[in-house]
Amino acid sequence: MRTVLLAMVVAVPLIAHSASDAAAPLLDLNSIALSPELGLAVYTEREQGHCVLCHAVSSLAVPFQGDVGPTMDGIGSRLTPAQIRYRIVDASRLNADSVMPPYYRTEGLNQVGADYVGKTALSAEQIEQLVHYLSQLKD
């Protein structure tokens, strides 16, 4: 009985956090022009994703790159665009202890400023541009 109950408890989070909803493109990719330059801006600019605060890319000439998260060197060789997108949308779906903020989630957040309640940290287009940029970083 204990084994069966454990299997049911373990299976529930896997069903509740299906990859299909966050791994699919967030908008019609034919409706925007994807650009590595725009994705780089999302990656580096403080007003956008500012991913460089926690992640490094060795080929970037940007000072003070972070080391809290994994390096992005070669991420396009290790992960598919869908896998990259899934992590950006909400990394806690893969690792509940992740310190990476969810960039496309509006529910279940803590200490959100009144002006930001109900809004995502990045737009769908910003995420798609970022996914496009990161997908180009190959070994």
Structure, described:
- The protein is mainly α.
- The chain has one domain (19-106, 114-135): Orthogonal Bundle (Cytochrome Bc1 Complex, Chain D, domain 2).
- Helix content is 40%, strand content 0%.
- The protein contains six helices and no strands.
How is the topology of this model organized?
Blueprint: H1 2-16, H2 19-23, H3 36-44, H4 75-78, H5 81-90, H6 124-135
Helix pairs in contact: 3-6, 5-6
Order of helix and strand elements from N to C terminus: HHHHHH
Q: Which whole number gives the mean pLDDT?
A: 84
Give the termini distance in whole angstroms: 48 Å
How many strands in all? Answer: 0
Q: CATH class, anyone?
A: Mainly Alpha
- The fraction of residues assigned to DSSP E strands is under 5%
Number of discrete helical segments: 6
**Helix share, percent:** 25-40%
The CATH homologous superfamily is called Cytochrome c-like domain
Tell me, what's the shape?
A: globular
The Rg value, from CA coordinates, equals 17 Å
Based on secondary structure, the structural category is mainly alpha
- Architecture per CATH nomenclature, i.e. the level-2 architecture: Orthogonal Bundle
What kind of sheet is the major sheet? none
